[in-house]
Amino acid sequence: MKKILLNECLLRFPALSRNESLSRSAAASFAMQCDPTVEETAAVKTAVSEAVTNAIVHGYRNSKGNIEMILQLYEGNLLKITIRDRGCGIPDIKAAMEPEFSTAPPEEERSGLGFTVMESFMDKVRVRSSKGKGTAVTLEKTIIGK
Ligand SMILES: Nc1ncnc2c1ncn2[C@@H]1O[C@H](COP(=O)(O)OP(=O)(O)OP(=O)(O)O)[C@@H](O)[C@H]1O
Ligand SMILES: [Mg+2]
Q1: Which of these is catalytic: 20, 24, 50, 86?
Q2: Which position among 20, 24, 40, 54 bears the catalytic label?
Q3: What are the structural domains of the chain?
Q4: d(CA 58, CA 41)
Q5: Strand order in the sheet with 124-130
Q6: Residue-level pLDDT at 33
Q7: Which mean pLDDT values do the consecutive 10-residue runs of the chain (146 residues) have?
Q8: pLDDT in the model for residue 58
Q9: Residue located nearest, by CA, to atom 12 of ligand 1
């Protein structure tokens, strides 16, 4: 059965690393209405941070663009957070989500574990992407709370 949407918020910001902490804090603030534990808040912040960093460093790489973050709360304390960019897209999503897969140049020293981290901290991670059009990552977590 489809869950009822109780609350929704849209945040749009330029793909700059200085906005990473804003996105983390905004997600944590939105999650507050579910009365999360410290661990749940930390999990949401970490997953959002990985997805936003990916949009900045991979999606837009050296170009300018905006990131949209859609924060949604559904009945049953289900939190859904979508991070969307209109960057280069991911040609092979399955491969990109494998642990230790990274297209970053070696000098950036990325471990290729961002998606693995998102999946370990959230209940569900859904990725939609088309080459040249961009990527949307949806993170889902039911907040059990205190
Ligand atoms: N928003 C995005 N746009 C384009 N490509 C992406 C995007 N997000 C992820 N990718 C691709 O998926 C790969 C894996 O992402 P993941 O976050 O797991 O690892 P990473 O970013 O390379 O390394 P780490 O997150 O450990 O620093 C990236 O190297 C990149 O090729
Ligand atoms: Mg990453």
Answers
A1: 50
A2: 54
A3: 7-142 (3.30.565.10)
A4: 25
A5: 5-14, 66-74, 78-85, 134-142, 124-130
A6: 97
A7: 95 97 98 97 98 97 95 98 98 96 90 97 98 97 94
A8: 97
A9: 96
